[in-house]
Each structure stands twice: as C-alpha cells, then as structure tokens.
Design goal:
The protein is mainly alpha-helical. It is 63% helix and 9% strand. α2 crosses α4, α8 packs antiparallel against α10 and α10 crosses α11.
Length: 311
C-alpha cells in the first residue's frame, strides 16, 4: 500500500532506513546482514543523512565494538538472531514499511545502495570508516590494539618473543591516547592497568594472555563510562541513561576485583609487579578481600550443613 505524506516523521524514516539496509544487503549477498554490519551501516547512513538535513532519529551509542544502535529504540520489525555468542544476524519480519512519496526516501535509498556497494564485502574498511567518527582518539587506538590480539590468535607459528617485538609499538601507542581530562574518574585505574602492561612488556616471556585479559577488561569497563559521555550517544531515552548510570558503582567494584585478580596472577610469574607501591596496594586489597569472601562461603556452607543435620 502506498500512502502519500509530504512530511514523514523520524520514526517513518528510521523504519524505512532499517528495512532498506537489510533488503539491499540480502539482494547483494542472498542472506541477512550480521549485527556488526547492520550497526555500522546504520551509523554511516545516519551521518550521511544529517549532512543532507535529514534526521532519522537513530538511537545509537558508542560501546565495546564501536557505534551501535539501541535495540529497544529500533523498529519492532527487527529481529536479532543470536546464532552464537560471537555471531548475530538481523532480519526484518512481518509487513514491509509504508512507502511515502517524499524525496527523503529516495535519498535514503541512494545512500544505502552506495554504502552497500562500498562495504558489503569489506568489513574491516567499514569498521575503520565508522571509527573515524569516534569521539576519542583512544577508541581508535583500541581498534588498532584489537588487531594485535586477533593477529596473535590467528598466528600459525606463534612466537611470544618475536610477536612482542612486532606489536610492542602498537600496544604502547594505542594506550597512550587515554583521555584523562574527560575521564578523571578512571585516571587512577588506567595508570594501574598501564603499569601492569609496561612491566609485562619488559619480559621476554611476557604473558600475552594476561595482557589480553587486562586490556579487554579495562576496555569493557571504560565503555560503561564512555556511553554516558557527551558525544558518545544520541537519541537514547532518559530512563536508559539513568539505568546505565545506576550500574556504574557495581561495574567499578567488579573491575577493581578483576584487576586485583590479574595482579595476583601476574605476580606468580612476574614478582616485580608487586614491587610497585600502587600495584602492591591493589594486591593486598584483593588478597584480603578474597580471604574474607572465602571465609563467608565457608561459614555459609557450615551453616547450611548444620541446618540440614538438625532438620
């Protein structure tokens, strides 16, 4: 059914843009797009349309893997199929969106066709293009760092010493762009994380897996704060923002414990870790915290066994 509307609203345009991104990809590839592709093409489509004074009101924010849509704010016809922990596809279900006679729809289609032709077979280039719009250089540095980690995982002949020589410069450069002025609340933990990395990089057998865990956990924690910063989200409901804010205290404590565990783990092989005063302080805090936790567990188990014995 074709309806005439001379002034389509952003909801109509968002529905059409979402539908046409999926439809054009399916026409070209014969299957629905991945979640990564859909997120990134929607991001670029939104930015290109804004340059033409067309706002589709895309609800999106920067998070762990770049700019992504806020699913609850997207059209209900979108279905996210989680095929595995690392693979998601996006489909449009049920009725097609209504097509309005308005120039905005033609412009959306033109932009999506152009983006589809450019990036349907070029995931890496697509991600890099989206990251050009990242609000902080640190995000682009982490993208480079992620390439180092993936390179290690895909290496056919892994050699720790040689790989460190190749990747050390990328690692140090990637971590040098931390925006401490914009994230003063994270400055202390960043310095601790960076000290761990620096000490690991001094060693020939440098504990790449510990480094990987440290970097991933720091990055994920950083992203809880990132999405709340100015310029890192758009068209997100106030209730969602409030919910994200409410999770920060929990995530801060959780990250502090994870980092403490990694310091303990690293100290077994690299004792120099706890010669640093600040790292030693975290080591002692986490060690004490674990002892208290185990004590509570033991007391709980004893209490439970005693109740069962008495019943």
């Amino acid at each position: 059914m074709i309806r005439i509307n001379t002034t389509p609203n952003s909801n109509d345009l968002l529905r059409y843009a979402s539908y046409i991104v999926i439809n054009k990809y399916k026409e070209k590839k014969g299957k629905p797009p991945s979640g990564l592709y859909f997120n990134k093409i929607m991001s670029l489509c939104h930015r290109n349309l804004l340059e033409k004074d067309i706002d589709i009101g895309l609800p999106h924010y920067w998070y762990r893997y770049g700019d992504q849509v806020h699913k609850r704010g997207m059209p209900t016809n979108l279905v996210w199929q989680h095929e595995s922990p690392l693979k998601t596809t996006v489909e449009w279900r049920y009725e097609e969106p209504d097509f309005f006679r308005h120039d905005a729809y033609d412009i959306i289609e033109e932009i999506v066709i152009d983006l589809t032709n450019k990036y349907s077979d070029k995931r890496k280039q697509l991600v890099q293009k989206v990251y050009e719009y990242a609000p902080f250089d640190f995000q682009r540095g982490i993208l480079d760092l992620r390439g180092v980690v993936y390179g290690w995982k895909n290496a056919l002949n892994w050699d720790s010493k040689n790989y460190k020589l190749i990747s050390k410069g990328v690692i140090l450069d990637s971590l040098s762009h931390f925006p401490d002025k914009e994230f003063p609340e994270l400055k202390q933990q960043y310095r601790l994380f960076k000290k761990v990395v620096d000490i690991l990089l001094e060693k020939e057998d440098w504990g790449f897996k510990i480094f990987e865990e440290a970097y991933i956990n720091f990055w994920f924690w950083f992203c809880y704060h990132l999405r709340l910063k100015k310029g890192a989200s758009e068209n997100i409901p106030k209730k969602t923002i409030a919910y994200w804010e409410s999770k920060l205290d929990f995530e801060n404590v959780r990250y502090k414990k994870i980092m403490g565990d990694l310091i303990i783990q690293a100290s077994k092989k690299y004792p120099k870790i706890i010669k640093d005063k600040q790292l030693a302080k975290e080591y002692r805090w986490r060690t004490k915290d674990l002892k208290e936790t185990y004590k509570l567990i033991d007391e709980f188990e004893f209490s439970k066994d005693f109740e069962e014995y008495c019943s």
